[in-house]
Amino acid sequence: MSDPVSAPVSAMNHASYVGIARVEETGLQGMITLRGDLSSATLGKAIKAATGQGVPDVRRVAVDGDSGACWMSPDELLLLVPYAEVEAKLAALNETLKGEHALAVNVSDARAVFRVSNGPAREVMAKLAPVDLSPGAFEPGEIRRTRLAQVAGAIWMEEDGAFRVICFRSVADYVFKLLSVAAQPGSEVGVF
Amino acid sequence: MSTRLAKQGRLIDRSKQITFKFNGTTMRGFEGDTLASALMANDQMMMGRSFKYHRPRGVVASGAEEPNALVGLGEGARFEPNQRATTTELFEGLTSISQNHWPNLEFDVGAVNTALARFLPAGFYYKMFIHPQPFWKHVYEPIIRHSAGLGKAPDKETKDADTYEHFYAFADVLVVGGGVAGLQAAKAAAQSGAKVLLVEQTSHWGGRAPVDGGTIDGLAPDAWVEQTLTELKATDNVTIRTRTMGSGVYDHGYALAYERLTDHTPGAPGPRHRLWRIRAKQIVTATGAIERPLSFAGNDVPGVMLASAMRDYVVNWGVTPGQRVIVATNNDDAYRTAISLKKAGVDVLRVIDARTSGGGALADEARSLGIRVDPGKAIAKVKGGKRVKKVAICNQDGIGGAREEVACDAIAMSGGWSPVVHLWSHCGGKLIWDDALAHFRPDPARPPLGADGNGFVVPAGAANGPVSLGDVLADAQTAGEAAANAAGFTPKTADAPKGVSELELPLEPVWLMPANADMPLRMKAWLDFQNDVKVSDVQLAAREGYESVEHTKRYTTLGMATDQGKLSNINGLATLANALGEDIPQVGTTTFRPPYTPISMGSIGGEARGEVFQPIRKTPVHEWNDANGADWEPVGHWRRPYAYVRPGEGVHDAVNREVKNARENLGLLDASTLGKIIVKGPDAGKFLDMMYTNMMSNLKPGKCRYGLMCSENGFLIDDGVVARMDDDTWLCHTTTGGAERIHGHMEEWMQTEWWDWNVYVANVTEQYAQIAVVGPNARKVLEKLGGMDVSDAAIPFMGWADGKIGDFDCRMFRISFSGELSCEIAVPASQGLAFWEALIEAGKEFGVMPYGTEALHILRAEKGFIMIGDETDGTIIPQDLGLNWAISKKKEDFLGKRAQQRSHMTDRNRWKLVGLETVDGSVLPDGAYAAGEGVNANGQRNVIGRVTSTYYSANLDRGIAMGLVLHGPDRMGEVIEFPGTDGKIYKAKIVDPVFYDKEGKKQNV
Q1: Three-state DSSP state, B270
Q2: How far is B744 from chain A (nearest CA, A)?
Q3: Shortest distance, CA A68 to any CA of chain B (angstroms)
Q4: Which of A102, A105, A169 sits opposite B829 (nearest CB)?
Q5: Strands B985-991 and B975-979
Q6: Residue A65 maps to which CATH number?
Q7: B589-604, pLDDT tens digit by residue?
Q8: Which domain range does residue A44 map to?
């Protein structure tokens, strides 16, 4: 049986491009914006239950597969959970956080997620984000909320050296084309 | 004639011949040639004409400082004007044309200007064209436009064929310049462990040293450069780039470098230019020095060239600009040119040395090679038009009489050297005058300062003043260590490599040759070759009272050409100082501004062209809209359908159809762009009561309320419907343009004023696709899809509920911006398109039509609803719009309350919102002003109001409008006049702004 007409579709529906690096939209990812006191034990417990991870340090991510926690600001985290489980996780989170001053909202559909891998992925990203992405300065487990050319974005590095890129859904098409242009053949910088 | 020598040419590969074109003529050069060296090898000494007098001009320099040899390069989509032949690497198939002449380079009508030169002195244009005023537009401007400009702009129908990009780089020490000083400074800095980025503008390393000779640690400069490069390449913390010019230094260690990737291999894959956006803790400027021309009559005739450039052509490219050469100098360095030429087999007739004492060791060497040296002499005048023919020689100490004429075909000139202080100066580094070397150099006590108050630029080598090879290398070592130290690293102290070169005697400043040249000579002694500024022009400016060097620059255009006066500035200000009877340091320099040499517009834009020129925000329904006739309207970065135009239909026909259908059947609006902000916390109610003019804390869960937001100055900044989710959570809708702005506004007040309130805010605008289902059949289509109870009893007007429509989880708001029965339904964005399509399909039997923003506007205007940005413009308070009902009188405070109590805000003469109905049913022009009685102090007609929104209403079949009118609400029924820009006078009656369904029955069913 085919999917119901109401089946959710990610912004770029898994579009991909291969130049000096591979660019792909990774599809739907459950995401929860959590604002609260990051030092609270209750909050830490709620995050652990939702993602299996602890509260990440400043500019760090703790991600395993499609679950994890990303530091966003001194009072904000982005929690990653499987897309299908986001409402259940959100409910559980809110239940645990009852009585705490915190805000947890589903933002899964407000975003698009890309992966930039293979080849000089660092260089592709360094063409678009004003971040020191040289080895040593930026390594797996680090995250930056930054700018991708003209739009806001967040990037972190995975263990294999690939980048995860998050942007707003409305500019997913722009960011996909941007990453593709930055990965165009013959555009290796050759510094990292 | 200029020709290729049998030997020499360290940069060319004679086994690789390259064919290129200049003005349609096919010529040949070698790999490694620049366009300038290849043109000279083909005896093409004249390369263009000057800007003002269209005088024949040949190449004068060998690098970035070249003012004359500018060409139009490439063809079609790769054509680019004003490219310097001296920095253009030759490639197979290169096509170039000379500039600034008509009909051709050899014969130019504009050259008549030169005959009129005495009538075209500095400031001529200012004086001549100021009166009479009408002449400017119709006579002067068209003529000047025709003759002005250097190269031609690319054809407007072509599109640059290349791509460009930026690259963000970070370094502890950025070294600009890959001469021996830059190499040594980079090495010294890198030894501390600092991360070093070294950039060089040309395609080769070593700068001038391999041409000028001497030894470094006993090695020839070439060998030392090779050895040092090998070391740097093997050092992990060093990155080196050729063809990359450090173009500008900015605050906080920010620098730009301009990398030319495929200029020498057009069409190769990848970007053409890459702009490096660098953050460096310290910047070393090892930018070298530039030789100064001498100011003598006819110093611009093709064949007159900088002495250093002439030996560059011989040594680097195996090209001599002439067969019988005369060298004119005020220093020892130019003797190197005489010696190089002589050794290459070129006839050097004599060295004219302005110093009565003559030269030192280099002069002796020249004499030993049989070159005649004439001390105390000067060039009185160069004769020849398109080529040097002969030179008249006189005493330097005189007015130019008692001349001896010598036939020759090239002249090498040297007036001393000026350090390249541009990058040092860009961010505020100051200069001091060095009397001994007659040049400005960086003042070590006054560097450009970083955020910590310490200097962040360190000059190195010739760019810092030293001249001899030994001093240059020692200075570079010190600079590299200092930069590393300032960047927080511990440098390894090491001895600088030992540079040995001939001892040079001091130069003697020569600002005019001969020293007291008479007027006819001064009128032919060029300072600025590209802009045709002569010694006499600067002297005239001084006589006319231009004492400031900045004013003189603008009056005479000295240094304002594409070369930015790299050759002319010091000579020009020395001439000005002499004319004013002041010392050179008192006159000072003009301001050095980035970029060092012009960089392409493409590189500045980077990747932002074509599809990624600008981000376009797209709703989940965007592609469907695009496929179904959307006539796009930009709303912020969003694109929203203005109307859905059917085949064969005009845009306004579509609007009228949509407007009627929404009132009569069923309309759908993609309202996804509206801002959605969650506000949650124990203090959220209190917070929202401050943000909105009306009360939000007492809204019941499950209910919606329209609210107004004002700035602290009382002006209306946004509006929208607020829904209460639960005890401590509210959802605030904003305008499309307000989503990010209002989110930021809330965060700012939260973080700066009410940081102790327990409230969190999150912008969830893009989480949802929100679709307005509008019209008498709205409920029918929802009932057909099934799911939640959508009856008025279940969800009354201004209520909301979570539930399901069909298979879709949704949140439904009974709110109406159209005055019709209306449900705004939010579904997850990833299901937005599917939900929209389901509504379109199910709505067919109910006459469904999507409608665009124009229909939205008309529908709201029919109802007298205001629109932020139409009825408001940042100066409007809610009271102006008759929205007093939405301003709480009970609340102690809200943003804007105090401001709205000020006398000007409560003035009864503030224009107020009314409806406007044209007497004849026509549509009022948008923005038109209503004319009042009498005139104001400026003699202008008094105005008593203006149109803020105006439309043709298909439902009412007439023009409707809203406007702000003086005492408007008190003048109902009065007819006022709006003169249009079309000459017509529009008469409109002041009416209630609600044109349609005044009781509001239709939305509440």
Answers
A1: coil
A2: 14
A3: 20
A4: A169
A5: antiparallel
A6: 3.30.1360.120
A7: 999 999 999 999 999 9
A8: 16-182
